[in-house]
Design brief:
This protein has 213 residues and is mostly helical. The chain contains nine helices and no strands.
Length: 213
């Protein structure tokens, strides 16, 4: 009976995870169309105060988009099992995208954003560091043959990657109108955009481990 319950729970979790990935894919594509594509027109109106560092921001955006698009494919077990070499190569591109994206995000936050909007910079700096560390820890786990740990860290890294989609979605809620300054609202949305999803992920991961042990 216990075995059947575990199988049913695992089956239900797989369907939930599949639905979650579809939802993330939908919002990811919507984010690219609605928010990211306009930066490729490369004009001062779009970049606003970031026009002075337009190439740095564009590289950050490009790197983030590559990671955003590669991520879901990497987590599908069937694709991974049938295309292990492609999975490894995409994993290297994924890691390179995070290294580039986090480096330029850190640079922009420290040397540009902090001068005018310290609350936003204070949200971006830890986000960039944790984005990089989660991916590096996932890569290290894979090199050491710890595949389950590798998977867990890469899921965390993708949750953090998805922050810029999540916070745009959160900004639509009237709750964020309580703060007067737009940068303060953005900073709050950024913090919530990765801390809450990570907490939910850790809770689910611990629940699954308890049920299967």
């Amino acid at each position: 009976m216990k075995k059947n319950n575990l199988q049913n729970n695992s089956f239900g979790y797989l369907w939930f995870r599949f639905f979650l990935w579809l939802l993330m894919f939908y919002y990811g594509i919507k984010f690219i169309i609605d928010k990211a594509v306009r930066y490729f027109y490369f004009n001062e109106e779009t970049y606003e105060e970031y026009w002075k560092i337009n190439w740095l921001l564009l590289i950050h955006i490009l790197a983030g988009l590559v990671v955003l698009l590669i991520g879901p494919l990497q987590f599908f077990p069937y694709f991974r099992a049938k295309n292990i070499k492609i999975h490894k190569w995409l994993g290297k591109i994924y890691l390179a995208g995070i290294i580039l994206g986090s480096f330029f995000s850190l640079y922009i936050a420290i040397f540009f954003t902090a001068k005018s909007h310290w609350t936003w910079a204070a949200a971006l700096i830890p986000l960039s560091v944790i984005w990089l560390l989660s991916a590096l820890l996932g890569y290290r786990a894979a090199k050491n043959g710890k595949l389950q740990l590798h998977k867990e860290w890469m899921i965390r890294s993708y949750i953090i990657t998805f922050t810029f989609v999540t916070f745009r979605w959160l900004m639509k809620f009237s709750f964020f109108a309580i703060t007067a300054d737009g940068r303060d609202r953005t900073a709050l949305a950024i913090w919530l955009g990765w801390t809450v999803p990570l907490f939910i992920n850790e809770a689910m991961l611990n629940w699954i481990k308890r049920r299967t042990n």
